[in-house]
Amino acid sequence: MSETVTGVIAREKGAEVETVNIVIPEPGPNDVIVKIQACGVCHTDLAYRDGDIEDAFPFLLGHEASGIVETVGEDVTHVQEGDFVIMNWRAVCGECRACKKGDPKYCFNTHNASKKMTLEDGTELTPALGIGAFADKTLVHEGQCTKVDSEADPAAAGLLGCGIMAGLGAAVNTADIQRGESVAVFGLGGVGMAAIAGAKLAGASKIIAVDIDSKKLDWAKEFGATHVIDSSKLSGEGDDSEVVAQIRELTDGFGTDVTIDAVGIMPTWQQAFYSRDHAGRMVMVGVPNLTSRIDIPAIDFYGRGGSLRPAWYGDCLPERDFPTYVDLHLQGRFPLDKFVSERIGINDVEEAFGTMKAGDVLRSVVEI
């Protein structure tokens, strides 16, 4: 039997979000209804609202979420009613060529709910990243729910569902930072700050944080940065960048073992590329726009060696990683709660977009 709840939608490109009634259908055989407890406000939600991802309006926004499984479909075995779960947007299929090769983090056929949520007039909604969690409840595939320790604060735990896992995973999984290595992170939003925390967790000895915002540079020290660089005061491009020169100065003239670009624009990409030691590893986790192009001399690409890798969702496996980092947080070893800058209501999402764009928060979290 369907039910009507409250949710936040983007009705058309660039328009302010609206809080409306949405209809959740009865779950399909492998679907579940989750009662949402908290959901972070992510840049991706803003990108959906502004039409920068796709044009399938109206969108039901929200995806960095945690909640309680309320109703399960008849064939559900992965979770049960009452489980505290974090939502994930890569519910692997187990059958595609990536999964069969033992690389499920690159699954090409991830699962979503079998039915559509709608407006009261029957208009189908497109849930952000297949989740749609700025709502009292949402409908997802069972594989999109990862059970974790219920002692965790829902507002903090839910952030592992997207941005925090992306940055943390870029450091721990994609870059595979080892104890004693040096790391530089470019861009200190939630993703970059999570990369800083991940580098510390992995045992990096020198962690250099780079940003144009002095406030964020101060925050980075709290997450584990040993050195900070205010790039707003520095000039130059590519190998001649003053940012690159400062990073080399901090690393005996060599550059760092690992660099992480958490912005995704070409100036930070080039800084990350040239700040590496020879044979150093570079990870791009910041998402570029559709018109960006990588432009470096081919001899520089060849001559510096090492590796250049994008990080998709931090190369995470939710079933492995979400419970692990929740447990580390509860042990006091990973500061998940520090990413929660403010707690807001479901009617405050549009205002939170403005706060986010101003750079005044790491994450605003809607509590429901």
UniProtKB/TrEMBL annotation:
Query: What protein name is recorded for this chain?
Result: S-(Hydroxymethyl)mycothiol dehydrogenase
Cite the PANTHER family for this sequence. ALCOHOL DEHYDROGENASE, ALCOHOL DEHYDROGENASE CLASS-3
Give the GO terms filed under biological process for this record: formaldehyde catabolic process
| GO MF terms, alphabetically ordered | S-(hydroxymethyl)glutathione dehydrogenase [NAD(P)+] activity; zinc ion binding
The record's section on SMART domains has: PKS_ER
Keywords annotated in UniProt: Metal-binding, NAD, Oxidoreductase, Zinc
Span of domain Enoyl reductase (ER): 14-366
